[in-house]
Automatic annotation (TrEMBL):
The keyword ATP-binding applies. CDD domains: ABC_Metallic_Cations. This is ABC transporter. InterPro entries: AAA+_ATPase, ABC_transporter-like_ATP-bd, Metal_Ion_Import_ABC, P-loop_NTPase. SMART domains: AAA. One of its GO terms (molecular function) is ATP binding. Belongs to the ABC transporter superfamily. Residues 7-232 form the ABC transporter domain. Keywords: ATP-binding, Nucleotide-binding, Transport. It holds the Pfam family ABC_tran. It comes from Defluviitoga tunisiensis. It comes from the Bacteria.
Amino acid sequence: MKNEPVISANNLNYSVNNNQILTNIFFDIYKGDFVGIIGPNGAGKSTLVKIITGEIEKYSGEVSIKGKIGYVPQVEEIISTFPMKVYELVLLGLYKEVGPIKRFKKYHYQKVKEVLQLLSIEELYDRQIGKLSGGEYRRVMIARALVSDPDILILDEPEANIDKPGQELLLNILKKLKEEKNMTIILVSHDLNMIFKETTRILCLNKTLHCHKNTRDINMKDLKELYSEDFELFAHLNGTMKAVVDKHDGNT
Ligand SMILES: Nc1ncnc2c1ncn2[C@@H]1O[C@H](COP(=O)(O)OP(=O)(O)OP(=O)(O)O)[C@@H](O)[C@H]1O
């Protein structure tokens, strides 16, 4: 029998100004799951993530979370004039633990070094964040999410602005976190190649939950339903994605 879920949504509904954004969402996510959340633009993926992280509080239904969450939000522009060094940004990930009054201790700085090392960016420790490349900045944001040793890591479109080698590196890091720490990982992404390559479960979301299955059980029908008539174009634009889908598509 499986353990208790670490994230559980029970009849979750969310609307803003009478605009229904999420409807009747039920799902359970278990420790060590590597979950991909996919769906078209405006499907409510980021909204769902913000509900899980607690950023959005006024929803109806129940969402229960067991464990500490590390969150890498969708790409924000780097404010190049903002005078902050990489280690200072990563330390902000420990802010909840240290609080507004206490100062960071030596071991907090050590923790920052360790997490930068894990992500192979230790040489960025002292760099100004405004001088980082887009890919470097993404990894620093992941470091900030990981520095507090979360049980659950949530990443919202982390592949944006990163080149192919950078994406491979990112996937390898996520794989390592799952294998070595049995971390629960949630990855929101439009890159279906990336999603199909490493995730174990997929949530297909478009305002309602179309399906929640093992990645290997997702088929073309599920994806066509999710992306509707735009799917053929979408598949074409994604190029090799179709091959990945076909590989998994044992039923049609
Ligand atoms: N604060 C808000 N006020 C009004 N509408 C909102 C608000 N936040 C989100 N929405 C709407 O909710 C819907 C879902 O948005 P959300 O950002 O969650 O989608 P998404 O699936 O993450 O999209 P994308 O793939 O484009 O990032 C959109 O139609 C969006 O315009």
